[in-house]
Amino acid sequence: MKPIQVGLLGIGTVGSGTFNVLQRNQEEIRRRAGRGIQITMVADLDVARARAVVGEGVAVVSDAREVIANPDIDIVIELIGGYGIAKALVMEAISAGKHVVTANKALLAVHGTEIFAAASARGVIVAFEAAVAGGIPIIKALREGLSANHIEWIAGIINGTTNFILSEMRDKGLDFEVVLKEAQRLGYAEADPTFDIEGVDAAHKATIMSAIAFGIPVQFDKAHVEGITKLSATDIRYAEQLGYRIKLLGITKRAPKGIELRVHPSLVPAKRLLANVEGAMNAVVVHGDAVGTTLYYGKGAGSEPTASAVIADLVDVTRLHTADPHHRVPHLAFQPDAMSDLPVLPMSEVVTSYYLRMRVADEAGVLAKVTGVLALNGISIDAVLQREADEVGGEGATSTDLIILTHDTREGTMDKVLAELQALPTVLSPIVRIRKEELR
Ligand code: HSE
Predict the structure, then answer these.
(1) What is the pLDDT of residues 392-408, one digit of tens each?
(2) From ligand 1's centre to the CA of 306, what distance in Å?
(3) What confidence score (pLDDT) does residue 401 get?
(4) 86 Rama sector, left if φ>0, alpha if ψ -120 to 50, beta otherwise
(5) Which atom of ligand 1 lies at the shortest distance from residue 161's CA?
Protein backbone atom coordinates (compact mmCIF):
# COMPACT_ATOMS: atom_id res chain seq x y z
CA MET A 1 0.00 0.00 0.00
CA LYS A 2 1.29 3.48 -0.73
CA PRO A 3 2.56 5.40 2.31
CA ILE A 4 0.14 7.72 4.07
CA GLN A 5 1.10 11.31 3.27
CA VAL A 6 1.68 13.84 5.98
CA GLY A 7 1.96 17.62 5.81
CA LEU A 8 3.83 19.34 8.61
CA LEU A 9 2.99 22.89 9.68
CA GLY A 10 5.94 24.37 11.58
CA ILE A 11 9.32 22.68 11.63
CA GLY A 12 10.99 23.99 14.78
CA THR A 13 12.31 21.80 17.59
CA VAL A 14 9.48 19.27 17.69
CA GLY A 15 8.92 19.30 13.92
CA SER A 16 12.58 18.51 13.24
CA GLY A 17 12.50 15.74 15.84
CA THR A 18 9.39 14.31 14.19
CA PHE A 19 10.96 14.35 10.75
CA ASN A 20 14.20 12.78 11.99
CA VAL A 21 12.62 10.02 14.12
CA LEU A 22 10.19 9.13 11.33
CA GLN A 23 13.13 8.73 8.96
CA ARG A 24 15.34 6.88 11.41
CA ASN A 25 12.69 4.37 12.50
CA GLN A 26 10.66 4.29 9.30
CA GLU A 27 10.83 0.53 8.82
CA GLU A 28 9.67 -0.32 12.36
CA ILE A 29 7.01 2.36 12.19
CA ARG A 30 5.76 0.94 8.88
CA ARG A 31 5.55 -2.56 10.40
CA ARG A 32 3.51 -1.18 13.26
CA ALA A 33 1.23 1.08 11.26
CA GLY A 34 0.59 -1.35 8.42
CA ARG A 35 1.83 1.11 5.82
CA GLY A 36 4.57 3.69 5.50
CA ILE A 37 4.17 7.19 6.95
CA GLN A 38 5.88 9.95 4.98
CA ILE A 39 6.15 13.66 5.54
CA THR A 40 5.90 14.85 1.96
CA MET A 41 5.21 18.55 2.49
CA VAL A 42 6.37 21.08 5.08
CA ALA A 43 5.22 24.63 5.67
CA ASP A 44 7.36 27.05 7.64
CA LEU A 45 7.90 30.79 7.41
CA ASP A 46 11.62 30.05 7.50
CA VAL A 47 11.84 28.07 4.27
CA ALA A 48 15.65 27.84 4.39
CA ARG A 49 15.60 26.34 7.88
CA ALA A 50 12.91 23.87 6.82
CA ARG A 51 14.88 22.88 3.74
CA ALA A 52 18.01 22.35 5.85
CA VAL A 53 16.09 19.86 8.05
CA VAL A 54 14.26 17.88 5.37
CA GLY A 55 16.77 17.98 2.49
CA GLU A 56 15.55 17.42 -1.06
CA GLY A 57 12.53 15.29 -2.00
CA VAL A 58 10.06 17.01 0.34
CA ALA A 59 8.02 20.02 -0.78
CA VAL A 60 8.77 23.08 1.35
CA VAL A 61 6.45 26.08 1.27
CA SER A 62 5.97 29.18 3.38
CA ASP A 63 2.17 29.11 3.22
CA ALA A 64 0.53 26.49 5.45
CA ARG A 65 -2.67 26.73 3.40
CA GLU A 66 -0.87 25.15 0.45
CA VAL A 67 -0.41 22.03 2.56
CA ILE A 68 -4.06 21.97 3.58
CA ALA A 69 -5.15 22.45 -0.03
CA ASN A 70 -3.02 19.57 -1.30
CA PRO A 71 -5.41 16.66 -2.03
CA ASP A 72 -2.62 14.10 -1.57
CA ILE A 73 -2.08 15.01 2.09
CA ASP A 74 -4.00 12.72 4.47
CA ILE A 75 -2.76 14.02 7.82
CA VAL A 76 -1.75 17.52 8.88
CA ILE A 77 0.58 17.93 11.86
CA GLU A 78 0.12 21.32 13.51
CA LEU A 79 3.23 22.40 15.45
CA ILE A 80 2.80 26.16 15.23
CA GLY A 81 1.33 26.62 18.69
CA GLY A 82 -0.91 29.28 20.21
CA TYR A 83 -4.56 30.10 19.63
CA GLY A 84 -4.23 32.43 16.64
CA ILE A 85 -3.32 31.20 13.17
CA ALA A 86 -3.00 27.64 14.54
CA LYS A 87 -6.71 27.56 15.29
CA ALA A 88 -7.67 28.81 11.82
CA LEU A 89 -5.40 26.24 10.18
CA VAL A 90 -6.64 23.33 12.30
CA MET A 91 -10.26 24.23 11.51
CA GLU A 92 -9.44 24.55 7.81
CA ALA A 93 -7.60 21.22 7.78
CA ILE A 94 -10.61 19.55 9.42
CA SER A 95 -12.98 21.07 6.95
CA ALA A 96 -10.72 19.89 4.11
CA GLY A 97 -11.19 16.36 5.49
CA LYS A 98 -7.65 15.96 6.86
CA HIS A 99 -6.84 14.21 10.11
CA VAL A 100 -4.93 16.50 12.46
CA VAL A 101 -2.13 15.69 14.88
CA THR A 102 -1.26 18.52 17.23
CA ALA A 103 0.92 19.26 20.25
CA ASN A 104 -1.04 22.44 20.92
CA LYS A 105 -2.34 22.24 24.50
CA ALA A 106 -3.35 25.90 24.61
CA LEU A 107 -5.54 25.52 21.53
CA LEU A 108 -7.29 22.37 22.77
CA ALA A 109 -7.74 23.55 26.37
CA VAL A 110 -9.45 26.72 25.18
CA HIS A 111 -11.11 25.74 21.87
CA GLY A 112 -11.25 21.94 22.18
CA THR A 113 -15.04 21.73 22.26
CA GLU A 114 -15.39 23.50 18.92
CA ILE A 115 -12.47 21.64 17.34
CA PHE A 116 -13.59 18.15 18.42
CA ALA A 117 -17.17 18.83 17.35
CA ALA A 118 -15.99 19.95 13.91
CA ALA A 119 -13.72 16.90 13.60
CA SER A 120 -16.50 14.48 14.59
CA ALA A 121 -18.92 16.09 12.15
CA ARG A 122 -16.36 15.77 9.34
CA GLY A 123 -15.39 12.21 10.36
CA VAL A 124 -11.72 13.02 10.98
CA ILE A 125 -9.44 12.50 13.95
CA VAL A 126 -7.73 15.20 15.99
CA ALA A 127 -4.95 13.45 17.91
CA PHE A 128 -3.02 15.21 20.67
CA GLU A 129 -0.82 12.86 22.67
CA ALA A 130 2.04 15.39 22.49
CA ALA A 131 -0.10 18.13 24.05
CA VAL A 132 0.21 16.75 27.59
CA ALA A 133 3.50 15.79 29.25
CA GLY A 134 5.47 15.52 25.99
CA GLY A 135 6.78 12.00 25.52
CA ILE A 136 4.76 10.40 28.32
CA PRO A 137 1.81 8.53 26.75
CA ILE A 138 -0.62 9.87 29.34
CA ILE A 139 -3.48 10.52 26.91
CA LYS A 140 -3.32 6.92 25.72
CA ALA A 141 -3.16 5.66 29.30
CA LEU A 142 -6.11 7.73 30.48
CA ARG A 143 -8.28 7.31 27.43
CA GLU A 144 -7.68 3.63 26.75
CA GLY A 145 -5.50 1.88 29.31
CA LEU A 146 -7.62 3.01 32.27
CA SER A 147 -11.03 2.89 30.61
CA ALA A 148 -12.35 0.35 33.15
CA ASN A 149 -11.91 2.79 35.99
CA HIS A 150 -13.90 5.36 37.83
CA ILE A 151 -11.04 7.85 37.91
CA GLU A 152 -10.85 9.64 41.23
CA TRP A 153 -7.95 12.04 40.86
CA ILE A 154 -4.95 13.03 38.82
CA ALA A 155 -2.00 15.01 40.10
CA GLY A 156 0.90 15.83 37.87
CA ILE A 157 4.13 17.70 37.49
CA ILE A 158 3.33 18.74 33.96
CA ASN A 159 5.61 21.68 33.41
CA GLY A 160 9.32 20.98 33.19
CA THR A 161 10.45 24.60 33.34
CA THR A 162 8.89 25.22 36.73
CA ASN A 163 9.98 21.86 38.08
CA PHE A 164 13.55 22.68 37.06
CA ILE A 165 13.30 26.05 38.81
CA LEU A 166 11.83 24.53 42.00
CA SER A 167 14.48 21.81 42.06
CA GLU A 168 17.22 24.42 41.76
CA MET A 169 15.63 26.62 44.44
CA ARG A 170 15.62 23.67 46.83
CA ASP A 171 19.09 22.38 45.98
CA LYS A 172 20.81 25.75 46.12
CA GLY A 173 18.61 27.61 48.61
CA LEU A 174 18.12 30.40 46.06
CA ASP A 175 15.11 32.61 45.46
CA PHE A 176 12.85 32.38 42.42
CA GLU A 177 14.16 35.41 40.49
CA VAL A 178 17.77 34.29 40.73
CA VAL A 179 17.00 30.76 39.53
CA LEU A 180 14.73 32.00 36.74
CA LYS A 181 17.58 34.06 35.28
CA GLU A 182 19.90 31.06 35.47
CA ALA A 183 17.24 28.83 33.85
CA GLN A 184 16.89 31.34 31.01
CA ARG A 185 20.68 31.46 30.56
CA LEU A 186 20.79 27.65 30.32
CA GLY A 187 17.85 27.50 27.91
CA TYR A 188 15.50 25.73 30.38
CA ALA A 189 13.19 28.75 30.49
CA GLU A 190 12.08 30.79 27.51
CA ALA A 191 12.87 34.49 27.09
CA ASP A 192 9.18 35.12 27.87
CA PRO A 193 8.51 32.46 30.50
CA THR A 194 5.07 33.78 31.53
CA PHE A 195 2.97 30.76 30.48
CA ASP A 196 5.29 28.39 32.33
CA ILE A 197 5.98 30.30 35.55
CA GLU A 198 2.42 31.55 35.96
CA GLY A 199 1.02 28.02 35.73
CA VAL A 200 -0.88 28.61 32.47
CA ASP A 201 0.88 25.85 30.50
CA ALA A 202 0.26 23.35 33.30
CA ALA A 203 -3.39 24.45 33.49
CA HIS A 204 -3.85 23.85 29.76
CA LYS A 205 -2.59 20.30 30.26
CA ALA A 206 -4.61 19.71 33.44
CA THR A 207 -7.72 20.93 31.62
CA ILE A 208 -7.23 18.37 28.86
CA MET A 209 -6.68 15.58 31.40
CA SER A 210 -9.76 16.57 33.39
CA ALA A 211 -11.90 16.27 30.27
CA ILE A 212 -10.61 12.82 29.42
CA ALA A 213 -10.66 11.52 32.96
CA PHE A 214 -14.17 12.66 33.85
CA GLY A 215 -15.91 12.98 30.49
CA ILE A 216 -16.49 16.72 30.87
CA PRO A 217 -15.89 19.38 28.20
CA VAL A 218 -12.52 21.16 28.21
CA GLN A 219 -13.01 24.21 30.45
CA PHE A 220 -9.77 26.11 30.80
CA ASP A 221 -11.70 29.22 31.84
CA LYS A 222 -12.86 27.42 35.01
CA ALA A 223 -9.38 26.28 36.07
CA HIS A 224 -7.70 27.86 39.08
CA VAL A 225 -4.27 28.94 37.86
CA GLU A 226 -1.44 29.95 40.15
CA GLY A 227 2.27 29.82 39.32
CA ILE A 228 5.49 29.77 41.29
CA THR A 229 6.55 33.42 41.07
CA LYS A 230 5.65 34.18 44.68
CA LEU A 231 7.39 31.16 46.22
CA SER A 232 10.32 31.91 48.46
CA ALA A 233 13.34 29.81 49.40
CA THR A 234 12.19 30.24 53.02
CA ASP A 235 9.02 28.22 52.42
CA ILE A 236 10.86 25.55 50.52
CA ARG A 237 13.22 25.22 53.51
CA TYR A 238 10.45 25.11 56.13
CA ALA A 239 8.51 22.59 54.05
CA GLU A 240 11.61 20.41 53.95
CA GLN A 241 11.94 20.59 57.73
CA LEU A 242 8.35 19.35 57.98
CA GLY A 243 8.99 16.44 55.60
CA TYR A 244 7.59 17.97 52.39
CA ARG A 245 8.77 19.23 49.02
CA ILE A 246 7.03 22.02 47.10
CA LYS A 247 5.97 21.16 43.55
CA LEU A 248 3.81 22.93 40.99
CA LEU A 249 0.97 20.43 40.60
CA GLY A 250 -1.80 20.22 38.07
CA ILE A 251 -4.65 18.60 39.93
CA THR A 252 -8.04 17.40 38.82
CA LYS A 253 -10.22 15.53 41.22
CA ARG A 254 -13.70 14.14 41.51
CA ALA A 255 -15.50 15.73 44.49
CA PRO A 256 -19.04 15.07 45.71
CA LYS A 257 -20.49 18.14 43.95
CA GLY A 258 -18.25 18.45 40.92
CA ILE A 259 -14.73 18.42 39.56
CA GLU A 260 -11.74 20.22 41.00
CA LEU A 261 -9.40 21.66 38.39
CA ARG A 262 -6.44 23.60 39.71
CA VAL A 263 -2.78 24.40 39.26
CA HIS A 264 -0.78 25.80 42.16
CA PRO A 265 2.32 25.12 44.21
CA SER A 266 1.68 22.27 46.64
CA LEU A 267 3.49 20.66 49.51
CA VAL A 268 3.91 16.96 48.74
CA PRO A 269 5.22 14.47 51.33
CA ALA A 270 8.94 13.96 50.57
CA LYS A 271 8.47 10.20 50.55
CA ARG A 272 6.04 10.25 47.61
CA LEU A 273 7.54 9.36 44.22
CA LEU A 274 6.08 12.57 42.81
CA ALA A 275 8.04 14.65 45.31
CA ASN A 276 11.26 13.11 43.96
CA VAL A 277 10.71 14.07 40.34
CA GLU A 278 13.55 16.51 39.78
CA GLY A 279 14.77 18.91 37.14
CA ALA A 280 12.80 19.29 33.93
CA MET A 281 11.17 15.85 34.19
CA ASN A 282 7.38 15.38 34.22
CA ALA A 283 5.29 12.83 36.10
CA VAL A 284 1.58 12.19 36.39
CA VAL A 285 -0.16 10.15 39.08
CA VAL A 286 -3.61 8.80 38.26
CA HIS A 287 -5.84 7.17 40.84
CA GLY A 288 -8.59 4.91 39.58
CA ASP A 289 -10.98 2.84 41.71
CA ALA A 290 -9.97 -0.48 40.16
CA VAL A 291 -6.31 -0.01 39.37
CA GLY A 292 -5.41 2.08 42.43
CA THR A 293 -2.57 4.55 41.99
CA THR A 294 -0.50 4.54 38.81
CA LEU A 295 2.50 6.72 37.93
CA TYR A 296 3.76 7.88 34.53
CA TYR A 297 7.20 9.49 34.39
CA GLY A 298 9.38 10.87 31.61
CA LYS A 299 10.44 13.84 29.56
CA GLY A 300 7.68 16.39 29.16
CA ALA A 301 9.33 18.39 26.42
CA GLY A 302 12.19 18.36 23.94
CA SER A 303 12.60 17.50 20.31
CA GLU A 304 12.53 13.69 20.15
CA PRO A 305 10.52 12.99 23.33
CA THR A 306 7.69 15.13 21.97
CA ALA A 307 8.21 13.68 18.48
CA SER A 308 7.71 10.25 20.06
CA ALA A 309 4.17 11.29 21.00
CA VAL A 310 3.46 12.98 17.66
CA ILE A 311 4.50 9.85 15.77
CA ALA A 312 2.49 7.56 18.02
CA ASP A 313 -0.51 9.64 16.94
CA LEU A 314 0.49 9.34 13.30
CA VAL A 315 0.59 5.55 13.71
CA ASP A 316 -2.84 5.54 15.39
CA VAL A 317 -4.36 7.71 12.69
CA THR A 318 -2.80 5.57 9.96
CA ARG A 319 -4.28 2.41 11.44
CA LEU A 320 -7.70 4.01 11.85
CA HIS A 321 -7.74 5.99 8.63
CA THR A 322 -10.06 3.58 6.84
CA ALA A 323 -12.06 2.51 9.93
CA ASP A 324 -15.66 3.51 10.44
CA PRO A 325 -15.45 6.75 12.52
CA HIS A 326 -17.82 5.15 15.06
CA HIS A 327 -15.17 2.56 15.83
CA ARG A 328 -12.53 5.12 16.72
CA VAL A 329 -11.59 6.09 20.25
CA PRO A 330 -13.63 9.22 21.08
CA HIS A 331 -11.53 12.38 21.27
CA LEU A 332 -12.28 12.88 24.96
CA ALA A 333 -12.51 9.18 25.91
CA PHE A 334 -16.29 9.28 26.42
CA GLN A 335 -18.76 9.14 23.54
CA PRO A 336 -19.77 12.70 22.58
CA ASP A 337 -23.42 12.03 23.49
CA ALA A 338 -22.43 10.58 26.88
CA MET A 339 -20.50 13.50 28.33
CA SER A 340 -21.07 14.53 31.93
CA ASP A 341 -22.41 17.90 33.00
CA LEU A 342 -20.64 17.79 36.36
CA PRO A 343 -19.52 21.37 37.03
CA VAL A 344 -15.94 22.44 37.59
CA LEU A 345 -16.04 23.68 41.17
CA PRO A 346 -15.09 27.23 42.14
CA MET A 347 -11.91 27.34 44.20
CA SER A 348 -13.89 28.25 47.35
CA GLU A 349 -15.45 24.74 47.20
CA VAL A 350 -12.14 22.89 46.88
CA VAL A 351 -11.15 20.82 49.90
CA THR A 352 -7.46 20.49 50.68
CA SER A 353 -4.99 20.99 53.50
CA TYR A 354 -2.66 23.92 54.00
CA TYR A 355 0.77 25.20 54.98
CA LEU A 356 0.54 28.60 56.63
CA ARG A 357 3.53 30.77 57.52
CA MET A 358 3.14 33.94 59.49
CA ARG A 359 5.54 36.33 61.16
CA VAL A 360 4.25 36.80 64.68
CA ALA A 361 5.24 38.82 67.74
CA ASP A 362 7.23 36.60 70.07
CA GLU A 363 5.01 37.08 73.13
CA ALA A 364 2.75 35.14 75.47
CA GLY A 365 -0.57 33.93 74.10
CA VAL A 366 0.14 34.45 70.39
CA LEU A 367 0.08 30.77 69.48
CA ALA A 368 -3.12 30.30 71.52
CA LYS A 369 -4.82 33.17 69.65
CA VAL A 370 -3.88 31.78 66.27
CA THR A 371 -4.89 28.21 67.05
CA GLY A 372 -8.08 29.58 68.65
CA VAL A 373 -9.16 31.18 65.34
CA LEU A 374 -8.50 27.89 63.54
CA ALA A 375 -10.42 25.89 66.17
CA LEU A 376 -13.41 28.26 66.08
CA ASN A 377 -13.65 27.64 62.33
CA GLY A 378 -13.42 23.89 62.69
CA ILE A 379 -9.91 23.61 61.18
CA SER A 380 -7.82 20.86 62.67
CA ILE A 381 -4.05 21.33 63.00
CA ASP A 382 -1.72 18.65 61.69
CA ALA A 383 1.65 20.12 62.78
CA VAL A 384 3.16 23.33 64.14
CA LEU A 385 6.70 24.60 63.75
CA GLN A 386 7.89 27.65 65.60
CA ARG A 387 11.44 28.89 65.21
CA GLU A 388 13.29 30.60 68.02
CA ALA A 389 13.14 34.36 67.43
CA ASP A 390 16.94 34.67 67.49
CA GLU A 391 17.26 32.03 64.82
CA VAL A 392 14.89 33.86 62.49
CA GLY A 393 15.58 37.53 63.15
CA GLY A 394 19.01 37.52 64.84
CA GLU A 395 19.91 38.23 68.45
CA GLY A 396 17.28 40.21 70.37
CA ALA A 397 14.61 39.70 67.71
CA THR A 398 11.06 40.22 68.97
CA SER A 399 9.23 38.32 66.23
CA THR A 400 9.45 34.89 64.77
CA ASP A 401 8.02 32.60 62.10
CA LEU A 402 5.11 30.37 62.98
CA ILE A 403 4.32 27.58 60.55
CA ILE A 404 1.12 25.58 60.75
CA LEU A 405 0.05 22.57 58.72
CA THR A 406 -3.69 21.97 58.74
CA HIS A 407 -5.88 19.01 57.96
CA ASP A 408 -8.42 19.20 55.13
CA THR A 409 -10.73 22.16 55.02
CA ARG A 410 -12.75 24.06 52.43
CA GLU A 411 -10.82 26.81 50.67
CA GLY A 412 -13.68 29.23 51.36
CA THR A 413 -13.33 28.57 55.10
CA MET A 414 -9.57 29.05 54.87
CA ASP A 415 -10.03 32.40 53.07
CA LYS A 416 -12.20 33.61 55.96
CA VAL A 417 -9.76 32.31 58.57
CA LEU A 418 -6.81 33.97 56.87
CA ALA A 419 -8.63 37.31 56.92
CA GLU A 420 -9.27 36.87 60.66
CA LEU A 421 -5.69 35.86 61.38
CA GLN A 422 -4.29 38.68 59.31
CA ALA A 423 -6.29 41.16 61.39
CA LEU A 424 -4.66 40.03 64.67
CA PRO A 425 -2.26 42.75 65.87
CA THR A 426 0.33 40.09 66.70
CA VAL A 427 0.45 38.83 63.09
CA LEU A 428 3.08 41.15 61.64
CA SER A 429 3.28 40.45 57.90
CA PRO A 430 1.16 38.95 55.11
CA ILE A 431 0.43 35.28 55.80
CA VAL A 432 1.84 32.84 53.26
CA ARG A 433 -0.61 30.09 52.30
CA ILE A 434 0.49 27.09 50.25
CA ARG A 435 -1.82 24.15 49.64
CA LYS A 436 -0.77 20.66 50.67
CA GLU A 437 -1.61 17.39 48.93
CA GLU A 438 -1.00 14.11 50.74
CA LEU A 439 -1.70 12.11 47.52
CA ARG A 440 -2.85 9.04 49.41
N1 HSE B 1 7.07 24.65 28.33
C2 HSE B 1 6.68 23.33 28.70
C3 HSE B 1 7.43 22.88 29.93
C4 HSE B 1 6.92 22.31 27.64
O5 HSE B 1 8.27 23.61 30.46
O6 HSE B 1 7.15 21.79 30.39
C7 HSE B 1 5.89 22.31 26.59
O8 HSE B 1 4.61 22.12 27.11
Answers:
(1) 777 778 899 999 999 99
(2) 10
(3) 95
(4) alpha
(5) 5
Is the pTM for the entire model greater than 0.90?
yes
Binding site feature residues? 9-16, 105, 190
pLDDT of residue 387: 80
Annotated catalytic residue, options 87, 98, 205, 436? 205
From the number of C-beta atoms within 10 Å of its C-beta (0-12, 13-18, 19+), residue 121 rates as: exposed
Residue 280 Cα, ligand 1 centroid: separation in angstroms?
9
Among the atoms of ligand 1, which is closest to the Cα of residue 282? 6
Mean pLDDT over all residues of the chain? Answer: 96
Pocket test for ligand 1, best of 201, 204, 303, 310 (most atoms within 8 A of CB): 201
pLDDT of residue 391: 76
Residue 323 identity: A
Domains and CATH numbers, the chain: 4-135+303-338 (3.40.50.720), 138-299 (3.30.360.10), 351-436 (3.30.70.260)
